[in-house]
Design goal:
The chain has 121 residues and is mostly helical. It contains five helices and two strands; from the N terminus they run ββααααα.
Length: 121
Amino acid sequence: MSDLEKVKLRNSTREEKSTIENIVPILEKLEREEHVAFNQLIAKCRDPKHIVFWSMSEILKKYWLMKTDGTIDESISNIVKSSVRTISQPFNLVHPIRKAAGKEIKEVLQAEQGEKKEDIK
């Protein structure tokens, strides 16, 4: 499976697996250690017009989740929106890949790779 291949997320978008593999651990760290920044990121992804608290935007920029102009890349936004299952606080972080319920990301990606090989046969 090429790093440029895309996998389907819970919000029905497709994103590169390498991007997902890099963003998910950052989201988990934010949820544990920077809860307010995590909440602000979710709000910004759901509503691009949301204004993030300045100190929280600095944290998001530090982790490359927010661009210097204050916007969120569409891929990151899709991953965030697919990773959050609840509408209001407290947010429940889940794996963004549609088939990943209760599985590690490597298991899901390996399974998807197997499915593609079966499709080729």
